[in-house]
Amino acid sequence: VQLQESGPGLVKPSQTLSLTCSVSGGSITTNSYWWFWIRQPPGKGLEWMGAITASGGTSYNSSLKSRTSISRDTSKNQFTLQLNSVTPEDTAVYYCGRLKWDNSVTLDYWGQGTQVTVSS
């Protein structure tokens, strides 16, 4: 499975950040897998943003829920992150990936990450 993030590297404050994750080698509709977004601000740890399930349901970090939306295009095998009303604090490397539900939860595949800077 390979994942590739794409989207603008620079977003202005108050605008909407939109990133797409293109998946190859596996279908985003396969049961037992969720497809997630995680970010890492400079100098900080990883932050879970949310995920979309194989059936299209969503789960979000409660601290970001009011500004976050994850959707998908099954015909293109892609899923998308939208983060509204961004501020410079949303500057981070954004990663997409796959979460596997088995006897435990494993984040088994990740994209390479994409830098997004929020600045005017």
Would you kindly provide a written description of the structure presented here, covering whatever features stand out?
By secondary structure, the protein is mainly beta. The protein contains no helices and eleven strands. The protein has strands spanning 2-6, 10-11, 17-24, 33-40, 47-53, 58-60, 68-73, 78-83, 92-101, 105-110, 114-118. Strand 5 and strand 6 form a beta hairpin. It is globular, with a radius of gyration of 14 Å.
C-alpha end-to-end distance:
36 Å
Q: What's the alpha carbon Rg, rounded to whole Å? A: 14 Å
Shape: globular
Number of strands: 11
Instruction: Report the helical percentage.
Output: under 10%
Keywords:
120 residues; 4-stranded antiparallel sheet; 55% strand; mainly beta; single chain
Walk me through the topology.
Layout: E1 2-6, E2 10-11, E3 17-24, E4 33-40, E5 47-53, E6 58-60, E7 68-73, E8 78-83, E9 92-101, E10 105-110, E11 114-118
Parallel strand pairs: 2-11
Antiparallel strand pairs: 1-3, 3-8, 4-5, 4-9, 5-6, 7-8, 9-10, 9-11
Concise synopsis of the structure shown:
With 120 residues, this protein is an all-beta fold. The protein contains no helices and eleven strands.
